[in-house]
Specification:
Oligomer: single chain
Helix content: 25-40%
Number of strands: 7
Order of helices and strands: EHHEEEHEHEHHE
Shape: globular
Largest sheet: 7 strands, mixed
Number of helices: 6
Strand content: 15-25%
Distance between the termini: 22 Å
Length: 227
């Protein structure tokens, strides 16, 4: 069955971006803008969005999706998230195939351990060879990575720039205070008259929004050593 399907990075087939957004939104609702910005971060390193597709007679069908991100503090581990199969294709063993292809992709990238978390698919991941473990922290895309690089490369420049800005703001603040003092000495205070009727009742208190939280839902952290 695996010969009929293959796994490709999204950034090598961006024409499937809209279909990928639709697939992910069948399980996790987000606006198209937020979803597409996240998917557009896919690259050869990390994060990497992977698509399982089926190609036949020139037609390409999107079957499933998975996403790989960096695990902070574990250079040989990778975090797997957003694993999903088209609703019409479920129950055919394609979920396990997607997991197997994704793990092989991670292994080819040089990673030896796959980490993930789940709330309602514990039995599925156990069948795929995953065991419970402690929580890990994943790096959420290029934005965090770029921010770290900016902090490393721009520290000295930022200090000089901030010092210059602080001096300019202080001079502007002193000048403003002097102007205000001069104006206050020449302008006479005006009497305030209220046009609001004292008989108008105060506005009603706003009710707090009630949020339903499923307290019985537990997050399971899992991992698998790749061989």
């Amino acid at each position: 069955m695996s010969l009929k399907y293959k796994l490709i990075p999204l950034h090598e087939r961006f024409q499937l971006l809209d279909k990928c957004c639709e697939l992910l939104n069948t399980e996790w609702k987000k606006s198209y803008g937020i979803r597409s910005r996240s998917l557009n971060q896919s690259c050869d390193s990390l994060p990497c969005n992977l698509l399982m597709i089926h190609e036949e007679q020139g037609n390409t069908s999107l079957i499933g999706h998975s996403r790989l991100t960096e695990v902070i503090g574990e250079p040989t581990s990778i975090f797997l998230t957003s694993v999903i199969i088209q609703p019409s294709k479920r129950g055919l063993g394609l979920g396990k195939l997607l997991m197997s292809l994704t793990e092989q992709y991670a292994l080819n990238m040089g990673y030896t351990t796959v980490c993930l978390s789940t709330e309602d698919k514990l039995e599925f991941y156990i069948k795929c060879g995953y065991v419970e473990s402690g929580p890990v922290e994943q790096c959420v895309g290029k934005q965090l990575q770029n921010k770290i690089l900016q902090l490393k490369n721009g520290t000295s420049h930022s200090i000089q720039s901030n010092a210059h800005n602080s001096t300019s703001q202080l001079m502007e603040h002193n000048s403003t205070n002097q102007t205000l003092e001069h104006n206050n000495s020449t302008v006479q205070p005006m009497e305030h008259t209220s046009s609001v009727s004292p008989n108008i009742p105060p506005p009603p208190k706003l009710k707090m929004l009630q949020t339903k939280i499923n307290k019985n839902m537990r997050k399971f952290w899992m991992r698998k050593v790749l061989t």
